[in-house]
Specification:
Helix content is 27%, strand content 24%. It has 463 residues and is of the alpha/beta class. The strands form three sheets. The protein has a nine-stranded mixed beta sheet with strand order 2-1-20-17-16-15-3-18-19, covered by helices on one side. Strands 4-5-6-7-8-9-10-11 form an eight-stranded parallel beta barrel, surrounded by five helices. Strands 12-13-14 form a three-stranded mixed beta sheet. α5 packs across α6. The longest helix is centred in the middle third of the chain and has 19 residues.
Length: 463
C-alpha cells in the first residue's frame, strides 16, 4: 500500500478503532460465466477492522458531483415493433421486469426515442413525407402515424409502470424536402428551412404530449458528422449554432416549450463541436447541455466540456454493449461506459438499443446497423437477456433519478463509481478488470467491510 493511501486512511482507521458498526451492505453480482446475473449474494458486514494489505475503496458521501437523471436504452422503432407483437401477458411481464421499480424490476428510468425513423426501423420515414418535388412549409401534413403503430402504444404501457421515466428524442434526419440532396441519407438542412424545422420539433413535442408522452429533452441531430446511415444528416457546428440560436431556442421560448435542448450527440473525439456552440452566449441561454457517444475518442472528453462550461449538463446518449464472440465480458463495458461516463459528469447513461431479434433485425438497408444486438433478444414471446441489460441494471435497479454521484477513489484493477440516493442509501458499483479474484476493502466514514470480486465480474454494493 502506498504512503499516500496510508495517509488517506489515517482518519478512517482512527474512526474504525473507536467503534464497530454492524451493518450489512447488500451485494448483487454478475460474473462472466453467467452463473450469477445481477444475483443477490450474502451481505457483507461493516466492522471495526481493515486489512491494510488489500486495496481500499474509500467512499465519501459528503463530496458530491452531478445529480443523475437516469439509466436506460434507446427504444427504437424496431425495439417497439418486437415488443408490441408479443402476446399481451408476455409483454406485460417483460415490461414490468424492465421498468418496474420494485426489487425484481430493472428500474430503467431513461429512454431515447428517434424523432422519425432511425437506422433500426423496418423502413425509413419522417413525420412529413411528401411526393417528390412537393413542399409543405406550414407542416400541414405532419403526422405521427408511423410511431402510433408501435412506439406510442409501447410507451403508454411503459408509462403505466413508471410515469416519471425521462424521454429523450433524437432525429436521424429532417424530411427529405428540407435537405440539400433531397435524400434520406446524408445531405444538410437547407438554411431556408431552419424556421420550418424548428416548428417540426415543436409539433413533435406537442403531438407526443397529446398521446400522454412528455419529451423531457431533445438533441438537435443524431451524429451530425455521420452521412452514411440510412437515415442520416450532417450538421456542422456553425450550422447547429445558427439553428439553435436564431430559430429553435427562440421558438421554444415563444411557444412555452420546456423540453431541454441538448446539442452535439456524437462521439467523444470532437468536444470542440459543443464547446464552440456553448461559447456563443446567446445560443448558450437556450442550451441545457451536450450529448456524447463513445464509438470514437476518450470518455474523458466529457470532462473537458464540463471544465470549460461547468453550469451545462453532460449526457451519455448512445453506445453499444454487446456479447462478442460468445464472451460475456461484463467488466469491460461497465468500466468503459457506465463508470466512465458517470465519473466524467454524465447525468445519464443510455445504451443502444433495447430490443432486436436474433438476426439483429429490423434495420434499414444501405446504412442500417446489421450487427446491433438488443439488451434483450425477442423471438415471438421468447426473450433472451443480453450483456447490455446487466450493464445498465447494475445502476438502474439501485440508483434512482435525483441521486448524486459521490466521491470514491479508483484504480486500474478495481474501477468504481459511487452514488447517494434521495433516501440516503449509498450505492457502489465495482468492476474487476483483472484476470484474478480481487480482495479489497470498502471504507466509508467510521465503517469498513472486506469484499471479494471474481475475475471479470461486476458487483453493486448498497448500504
Amino acid at each position: 500500500m502506498s504512503i499516500i493511501t496510508r495517509l488517506l486512511l489515517l482518519p478512517v482507521l482512527s474512526a474504525l478503532c473507536q467503534c464497530s458498526i454492524a451493518q450489512s451492505p447488500g451485494v448483487w453480482l454478475t460474473t462472466p460465466d453467467r452463473q450469477q446475473l445481477l444475483a443477490q449474494q450474502e451481505p457483507l458486514r461493516f466492522t471495526g477492522s481493515i486489512n491494510s494489505q488489500q486495496p481500499v475503496i474509500l467512499v465519501n458521501p459528503n463530496e458530491t458531483f452531478q445529480q443523475m437523471d437516469g439509466f436506460g436504452f434507446a427504444l427504437t422503432g424496431g425495439s417497439a415493433q418486437h415488443i408490441i407483437r408479443m402476446d399481451a401477458a408476455e409483454r406485460k411481464t417483460l415490461l414490468q421486469e424492465l421498468f418496474g421499480q420494485d426489487r425484481d424490476g430493472m428500474g430503467i428510468s431513461y429512454l431515447r426515442l428517434s424523432i422519425g425513423a432511425s437506422d433500426l426501423n423496418q423502413r425509413v420515414f419522417s413525420y412529413n413525407d411528401l411526393p417528390a418535388g412537393k413542399k409543405d412549409p406550414t407542416l400541414s401534413r405532419f403526422s405521427l402515424a408511423d410511431d402510433e403503430k408501435d412506439v406510442v402504444p409501447v410507451m403508454k404501457e411503459i408509462l403505466a409502470i413508471n410515469p416519471a421515466i425521462k424521454i429523450l428524442g433524437s432525429p436521424w434526419s429532417a424530411p427529405t424536402w428540407m435537405k440539400s440532396n433531397n435524400n434520406i441519407q446524408g445531405g444538410r438542412l437547407q438554411e431556408e428551412y431552419y424556421p420550418v424545422y424548428a416548428r417540426y420539433f415543436v409539433k413533435y413535442i406537442r403531438a407526443m404530449e397529446q398521446q400522454g408522452i412528455r419529451i423531457d429533452a431533445i438533441t438537435v441531430q443524431n451524429e451530425p458528422f455521420n452521412d452514411g446511415n440510412t437515415p442520416s444528416m450532417q450538421m456542422l457546428a456553425k450550422e447547429q449554432l445558427r439553428f439553435i440560436r436564431d430559430h429553435l431556442g427562440p421558438l421554444f421560448k415563444k411557444e412555452g416549450i420546456t423540453t431541454r435542448i441538448i446539442l452535439y450527440d456524437h462521439n467523444c473525439d470532437a468536444p470542440e463541436y459543443p464547446m464552440a456552440i456553448l461559447a456563443d452566449s446567446t445560443a448558450a441561454r437556450f442550451i441545457d447541455g451536450s450529448g456524447f457517444h463513445l464509438y470514437a475518442g476518450p470518455v474523458s472528453a466529457m470532462s473537458r466540456v464540463h471544465d470549460a462550461f461547468p453550469t451545462k449538463g453532460l449526457y451519455f446518449t448512445e453506445m453499444m454493449a454487446v456479447n462478442r464472440d460468445g464472451q460475456f465480458n461484463i467488466a469491460n463495458p461497465v468500466e468503459r461506459i457506465l463508470i466512465g461516463a458517470t465519473r466524467n459528469w454524465s447525468r445519464n447513461v443510455i445504451l443502444w438499443n433495447l430490443a432486436a431479434n436474433a438476426k439483429f433485425e429490423p434495420h434499414t438497408d444501405n446504412g442500417g446497423c446489421a450487427f446491433c444486438q438488443g439488451a434483450v433478444t425477442i423471438e415471438g414471446n421468447a426473450v433472451e437477456r443480453n450483456i447490455a441489460l446487466y450493464v445498465i441494471g447494475h445502476a438502474s435497479r439501485f440508483v434512482p433519478p435525483a441521486s448524486y454521484r459521490i466521491a470514491s477513489n479508483t484504480s486500474e484493477t478495481l474501477p468504481n463509481v459511487a452514488f447517494r440516493t434521495p433516501t440516503g442509501r449509498i450505492v457502489l458499483i465495482v468492476a474487476n478488470k483483472s484476470a484474478e479474484t480481487q480482495a479489497f476493502n470498502i471504507a466509508t466514514g467510521s465503517k469498513a467491510a472486506s469484499a471479494k470480486l471474481p475475475a471479470g465480474a461486476v458487483a453493486t454494493y448498497t448500504w
